[in-house]
Amino acid sequence: MSLSVDVFLVDEDGAVRLLDVPEGCSDLAGFEQWRTTVWGSEAVRSLGARFLPVLADEDLRVDAGRVRAFRRECAVLRENLEEVLAGLRPLRTVDELRDQLSARLANIEDAARRAEEAGGGVLIW
After folding, report:
1. Is the pTM of this model over 0.90?
2. More exposed terminus of the chain, fewer Cβ within 10 Å: N or C?
3. CA 91, CA 79: separation in Å to the nearest integer?
């Protein structure tokens, strides 16, 4: 299985509505095992990440009021991608992991941007 990242809105009655993923975008946020091996890893936690490590134990829901802080966390990971990679044990080559991690992080960053624009939140599940 894979982790998915989606944008959601909360309707007036409190119901959560997932938005469709726009054409040209991807909802892939990593492999299921990345909950602990990447997003919940010590390498990610050591950078001060508070949102993504939640995935080690449960799905991550970032409500609209916290999306900006979530985007900052993603930016810190992007800026320190090599440090994150150094703390992981890739199953293949470091270059392959770098490409995969960068692409999945880009999908998460894109969803967070779209969520902020829509006044919604981000769900990684």
Report:
1. yes
2. N
3. 23
- At residue 14, φ and ψ (nearest 5 deg) are 90, 0
List of E strands, 39-115:
60-62
Amino acid at 42: E
* Residue 101 · residue 86 · CB < 8 Å: no
Confidence of residue 3 (pLDDT cuts 50, 70, 90): very high
Nearest-angstrom CA–CA distance, 49 and 39: 9
Residue 91 has pLDDT above 90, yes or no: no
Q: In sequence order, what are the residues at sequence separation of 6 or more whose Cβ sits closer than 8 angstroms to the Cβ of residue 20?
A: none
